[in-house]
From TrEMBL, chains A, B:
Organism, as annotated: Ruminococcus flavefaciens 007c
Record-linked Pfam families: HTH_5
SUPFAM superfamilies assigned: Winged helix' DNA-binding domain (SSF46785)
Protein name: HTH arsR-type domain-containing protein
GO molecular function, one term: DNA-binding transcription factor activity
Lineage top rank: taxon: Bacteria
Span of domain HTH arsR-type: 1-94
Gene3D superfamilies: Winged helix-like DNA-binding domain superfamily/Winged helix DNA-binding domain (1.10.10.10)
Length: 102, 102
DNA sequence: AAAACATATTGACATTTTTCTATGCGTATG
DNA sequence: CATACGCATAGAAAAATGTCAATATGTTTT
């Protein structure tokens, strides 16, 4: 799994806004449609729509269209990719100091 | 571990900028001082200093002052907290649909 | 077919973030 | 002790992001 720096930022942007974090908390109880999410968030409908796009772009959330409703849920595949990515980017290969002052 | 939505955003802001992701890649080979990081990034010194502050605030990176040098490294404790947080926020408790259209 | 409904898109504005130049502060060195 | 060095801070400009009102799009219902 070789993700670019840009791709990594897209994934973690999902968790860089308080409202989006709150959306995760709401989705933890299962799939919800946008209208239901809207009830619990102090946001306008277009703003929610914008956040859901950011979340879907990250891969951490997936949308499922059913008639005129959009159902959103947390993607376990997306979560696994994010976890692997976080693990990979924070892994340290060596431990000695490489500084100019060594 | 009960982190607020705000605290979560502070952690993951570390990975929302391409330059900061690149800094992680550089630190994966071990501790580096700011002057050395600066050589590999196309950034001014104050801009790097700003990014290092964001990284340290996230807890994913720690700084160690030695004389006039600042040595930065990836924090494994910080990484563990971020991993736990990501796991927790993407966990799903129920799987049935809770939508208004159920 | 028209009306109602759920969501997305557009365009504008406010806020936040990124970036730089200039400067300040602490530490080491001549 | 004066100077140089490494890094942080202040302030300003530019870019990106979050937000909303208005509107568009697609779907269901009457």
């Amino acid at each position: 799994m070789e993700l670019s720096n840009k791709q990594i930022t897209v994934i973690f942007k999902a968790l860089c806004d308080e409202n989006r974090v709150q959306i995760f908390r709401l989705l933890q109880n299962g799939e919800l449609c946008a209208c239901h999410l809207l009830e619990d968030l102090h946001l306008s409908q277009p703003t929610l729509s914008h956040h859901m796009k950011v979340l879907c772009d990250s891969g951490l959330v997936v949308g499922r269209k059913e008639g005129k409703w959009m159902h959103y849920s947390i993607s376990q595949e997306g979560a696994k990719i994010a976890m692997d990515c976080l693990k990979e980017i924070t892994a340290v290969n060596k431990s000695e100091c490489n500084c100019c002052n060594k």
